[in-house]
């Protein structure tokens, strides 16, 4: 601890120990605790207390106060735990009889303040810090702390209850530390008394008829097996697994979710999964006993395991497929479900869940589809994967939702009524259908997929979120059906589907709902990006009204739509598809979008369209767009001039990205920055360098970058710093060429930069020569500036001295203006 902090600390402790003083807020107390943790990690806690007796006085005085605030008491409990974590300091605090007054029966446990959750939480956290050595275990046993922790597991505060369970796990692990180092492990009867007490409590809780107690025990076991991989956990599981299995014999099964979490945790443990009495038999029993919702989640967890018995995997996959099997059976036109899964039969519990209520049906189907969507891309998914039945199930569910399904039973009729217009299930089914595009299916089924997707897009009553999901699924199926695209044409399925799709896309671009227009524009952008160079796609697009409708949306009243329209038109323009062609052989006859985009950049009142314009301009410059290539310098100069006045920092940052692209084209591409490597600058011939620097001056890139270097928004300044460092590295080896005839006069530039740094950025730099620019560039400590920008804006105020002064200033202990206010 430095001298200034040691000088301020007694006054701070006096403030905290005085209930009449207004105590600093909880944030200050948390910062103070963080500081003490840092100090005790670097120094001896015992020495710290001996050199600062005010801390001991504070900890001994606070528990005896009648009107102590709950925040200060909680702080004191946690602070004592931090100090007692070191065993020699623990012994010292025991000698002065301080710890019993804080954590024993004489402490806050018997006081009215114990009713406040903050105090109970502080007591638990203090013990958690304290329990780091064997001496702490004796203290816990002597003062009945473990029994108090047991009671706090059922605390009304969920935070306190969770912390109590975590503390029990920590104490159990500390008790068993070092007792399983060899190949043998003592049996439960030979364990330390503290561990035996905790295990006995868990056993009692597992046998209890009180579901909350069962939940607490299961949570403690899950955390224990998740954190501890020592051999003693084998003995613990062997002892408790029969009690866990017995829970599955109850009706209903108590705490199904915590039970499922425990079984999966044990299955993932490399120590426990290989035991003779491992979790597999219990997991198989759970899959049979749990309800459809819990069983589905457990089945997914089992199928995601890297190592698992094949019989259990087969059972789990069957459980996961049960809801879809019921749906297919209820709507099948012919008996039987060939190809779904041999042995998959209808479960009455699943049927009940599907038919009991709309919310139950929708919840079960959504969870099932989400589980299968998560499982599909995994390498450990079941093989063979039933692609065809799953496609049929997804299409059938969408048909049930839009009312076009043909039920073959009373169950199917009830499902039609239950799922009709269910947006939640439609979204889940479309997501799953999009995931299935990664596989292959029979031609007839793929045709059905495109048909149902087109129907979803055409339906006038489709919700905006369903349409967005339908566009996304359609795109995935189009891309997968095309295989490897070629410039000569589309795939056969896409060639048949797109002529039907473009009229629908035109209608959606005119939809009164802005979310629908936005989704349609995003879909068009992706289509153009993938197929913009293919003749068949170009022909279909240019024969439609889509380009003109998209251009009209540049004036849409909704800013999100305008931004998406800018992105779409930028992509179309890059492909020469942004307008109807009077002569398809001469795409250059299309009207340029550059003036319209420049108008949006300078005049649009919302930031989203302006950001989109800058992203398009950057891509145009990077890709050599025709409108940019005609006069690149004029384009860059115009854009930078407009962007420099923009109030949106993201637009200014994107302007620096465009400047960096231009800089790379002039001097060579910048490589990835790594602070641990030093790379020699790549040589640029003197003549091209002179031409490039002249171009940079003409587009006023130096002025733009220097102004951004002192931007009030840190991301902009950081990006400018990186750009200028790249520019300096490229030009430094040739500085002698510029200074051969004498040092350039850069005094006026440096003076202007100093004014800009002080916030006076109204005056431009004027017409400057490359020599003066390079000299000014070398005069700036860019590395130091980058280090400053990397620091938090409050790095000065975060110092402990500032914190202590602020706490004292709150009660007027400091005089005049000695506090750091932030």
Automatic annotation (TrEMBL):
Gene3D superfamilies, per database record: Leucine-rich Repeat Variant (1.25.10.10)
One function term, GO molecular function aspect: ribonuclease inhibitor activity
Principal location class: cytoplasm
Segments crossing the lipid bilayer: none
Organism superkingdom: Eukaryota
Annotated keywords: Cytoplasm, Repeat
Cellular localisation: Cytoplasm
GO biological process, one term: mitochondrion localization
Record's GO cellular component terms: cytosol; nucleoplasm
Family: Belongs to the BRAT1 family.
PANTHER family: BRCA1-ASSOCIATED ATM ACTIVATOR 1
Record-given protein name: BRCA1 associated ATM activator 1
Taxonomic source organism: Propithecus coquereli
């Amino acid at each position: 601890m430095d001298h200034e902090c040691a000088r301020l600390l007694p006054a701070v402790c006096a403030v905290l120990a005085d209930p009449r003083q207004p105590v600093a807020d909880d944030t200050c107390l948390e910062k103070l605790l963080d500081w003490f943790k840092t100090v005790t990690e670097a120094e001896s806690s015992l020495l710290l207390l001996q050199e600062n007796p005010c801390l001991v006085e504070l900890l001994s005085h606070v528990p005896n106060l009648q009107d102590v605030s709950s925040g200060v008491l909680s702080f004191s409990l946690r602070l004592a735990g931090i100090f007692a974590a070191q065993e020699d300091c623990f012994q010292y605090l025991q000698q002065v009889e301080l710890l019993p007054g804080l954590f024993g029966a004489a402490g806050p446990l018997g006081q009215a303040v114990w009713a406040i959750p903050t105090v109970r939480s502080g007591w638990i956290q203090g013990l958690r810090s304290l329990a780091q050595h064997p001496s702490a275990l004796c203290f816990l046993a002597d003062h009945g702390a473990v029994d108090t922790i047991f009671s706090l597991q059922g605390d009304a505060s969920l935070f306190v209850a969770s912390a109590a369970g975590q503390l029990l796990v920590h104490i159990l692990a500390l008790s068993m530390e070092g007792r399983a180092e060899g190949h043998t492990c003592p049996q439960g009867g030979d364990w330390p008394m503290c561990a035996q007490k905790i295990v006995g409590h868990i056993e009692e809780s597992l046998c209890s008829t009180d579901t909350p107690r069962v939940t607490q025990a299961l949570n403690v076991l899950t955390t224990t097996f998740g954190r501890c991989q020592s051999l003693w956990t084998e003995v613990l599981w062997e002892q408790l697994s029969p009690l866990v299995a017995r829970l599955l014999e109850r009706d209903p099964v108590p705490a199904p979710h915590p039970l499922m979490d425990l079984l999966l945790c044990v299955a993932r443990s490399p120590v426990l999964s290989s035991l003779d009495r491992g979790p597999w038999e219990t997991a198989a029993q759970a899959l049979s006993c749990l309800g459809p919702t819990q069983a589905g989640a457990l089945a997914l967890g089992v199928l995601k395991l890297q190592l698992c018995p094949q019989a259990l995997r087969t059972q789990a996959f069957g459980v996961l497929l049960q809801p879809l099997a019921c749906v297919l059976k209820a709507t099948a036109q012919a008996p039987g479900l060939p190809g779904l899964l041999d042995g998959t039969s209808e479960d009455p519990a699943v049927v009940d869940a599907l038919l009991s209520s709309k919310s139950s049906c929708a919840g079960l189907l959504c969870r099932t589809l989400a589980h299968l969507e998560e499982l599909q891309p995994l390498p450990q998914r079941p093989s063979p994967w039933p692609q065809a039945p799953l496609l049929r199930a997804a299409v059938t569910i969408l048909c049930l939702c839009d009312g076009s399904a043909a039920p073959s039973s009373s169950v199917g009729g009830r499902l039609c009524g239950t799922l009709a217009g269910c947006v939640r299930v439609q979204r889940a089914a479309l997501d799953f259908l999009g995931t299935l595009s990664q596989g292959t299916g029979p031609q007839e089924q793929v045709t059905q997929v495109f048909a149902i997707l087109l129907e979803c897009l055409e339906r006038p009553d489709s919700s905006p979120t369903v349409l967005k999901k339908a566009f996304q699924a359609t795109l995935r199926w189009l891309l997968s059906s095309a295989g490897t695209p070629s410039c000569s044409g589309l795939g056969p399925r896409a060639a048949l589907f797109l002529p039907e799709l473009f009229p629908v896309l035109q209608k959606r671009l005119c939809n009164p709902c802005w979310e629908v227009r936005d989704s349609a524009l995003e879909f068009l952008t992706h289509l153009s990006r993938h197929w913009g160079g293919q003749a068949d796609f170009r022909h279909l697009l240019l024969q439609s009204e889509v380009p003109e409708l998209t251009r009209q949306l540049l004036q849409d009243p909704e800013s999100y739509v305008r931004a998406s329209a800018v992105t779409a038109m930028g992509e179309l323009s890059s492909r020469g598809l942004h307008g109807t062609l009077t002569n398809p052989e001469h795409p250059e006859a299309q009207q340029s979008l550059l003036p319209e985009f420049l108008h949006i950049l300078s005049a649009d009142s919302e930031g989203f369209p302006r950001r989109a314009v800058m992203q398009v301009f950057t891509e145009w410059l990077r890709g050599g767009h025709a409108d940019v290539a005609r006069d690149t310098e004029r384009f860059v100069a115009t854009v930078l001039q407009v962007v420099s006045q923009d109030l949106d920092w993201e637009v200014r940052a994107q302007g620096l990205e465009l400047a960096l692209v231009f800089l790379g084209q002039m001097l060579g591409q910048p490589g990835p920055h790594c602070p641990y490597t030093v790379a020699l600058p790549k040589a640029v011939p003197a003549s091209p360098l002179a031409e490039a620097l002249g171009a940079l001056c003409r587009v006023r890139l130096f002025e733009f970058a220097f102004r951004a270097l002192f931007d009030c928004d840190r991301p902009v300044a950081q990006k400018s710093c990186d750009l200028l460092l790249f520019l300096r590295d490229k030009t430094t080896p040739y500085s002698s060429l510029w200074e051969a005839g004498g040092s350039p006069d850069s005094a006026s530039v440096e003076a202007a930069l100093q004014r800009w740094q002080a916030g006076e950025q109204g005056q431009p730099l004027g017409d400057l020569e490359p020599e003066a620019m390079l000299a000014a560039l070398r005069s700036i400590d860019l590395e130091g500036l980058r280090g400053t920008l990397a620091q938090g804006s409050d790095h000065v105020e975060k110092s402990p001295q500032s914190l202590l002064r602020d706490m004292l200033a709150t009660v007027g202990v400091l005089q005049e203006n000695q506090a750091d206010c932030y």
